[in-house]
Amino acid sequence: MSAGTVTINGIDISKEPVKAKQKIGYLPQDPPVYPDMRVKEYMSFCAGLKRIPRSERKDEINRVMELLKISEVKNKLIKNLSGGYKRRVGFAQAILGKPDFIILDEPTVGLDPNQVIEVRNIIKDLGKKHSVIFSSHILSEVSEVCDRVVIINKGDIRAVDTIENLEKSFCSEVVLHIKVKGSKTKSASIIETTKGVKELTEINDEGSDSYSFTAVVDGDAEETRKNIMSELISNKVDITEIYSDRPNLENVFIQLINRPANSGGLEELLNPVPENKKSDESEEDK
């Protein structure tokens, strides 16, 4: 895009760039830190860039260092910090000065599990008083901290909505996973013809006379699960496991970005064509 305007709280960023940028806090994927500076020195430098009044700088710097738990390393050179601490320092500079808009790109990369939870909680708290734009490829994390999502593929916006609405819209179908011991053909036939099963999409040989099946449910998932169990048990098929996939943001993303190819039906699932055979057939077709 090479045209248009950007306004931040009504401020045209091309006409008043400094004033507009004071409203924005940004943490890129690679933290914008100076390795030869000490943490506190760097925070003071950033406070100056953001034109935080001198009378307020000390308290504001202490606030963000306490919030990100980097006070204990404030006198250390940034280059001597771990990757996780460097990211915390970068996060701290992003929220320095209490900007109205905070843009975070992969903010939890390099953090240990405890730090990830802490940072997620910080982001949630920030969202109560600030507009937070959170960019991540970890969709479970997006679900944890975001109220609204934008799914983009190769620059194309595929969806914009709340997570709840997207899950309802794109994940109306529930998937059941069933694992049994016994005849593959008999079990597949029972599952596929059970009331409530829309399609049998996958069959895998688990070894030791065990097979796993994936079925798409059309209607009440719990009722269909009970129907499948009843039919299998009455036909003397041992069920070792049965569970359903809950709709989530990952399901939405997969459906929007990588829609699966059309299924070849039950016969292909029961008798899949080996890869080398497929290649031979392709050559003959040519």
Identify the strand order in the major beta sheet. 9-10-8-11
Any idea what the CATH architecture of the largest domain is? 3-Layer(aba) Sandwich
Counted up, domains total 2
CATH class of the largest domain: Alpha Beta
Distinct helical segment count = 12
What does this structure look like?
This protein has 286 residues and is an alpha+beta fold. It has helices at 17-21, 39-49, 54-67, 83-95, 113-126, 139-145, 163-170, 184-193, 221-234, 249-257, 266-270, 275-285; strands at 7-8, 11-12, 24-27, 101-105, 131-135, 148-153, 156-162, 174-181, 197-207, 210-217, 238-245. Strands 9-10-8-11 form a 4-stranded antiparallel sheet. A 3-stranded parallel sheet has the order 3-4-5, covered by helices on one side. Strands 1-2 form a two-stranded antiparallel sheet. Helix 2 (39-49) packs across helix 3 and helix 7 (163-170) packs across helix 10 (249-257). The radius of gyration is 27 Å and the shape is elongated.
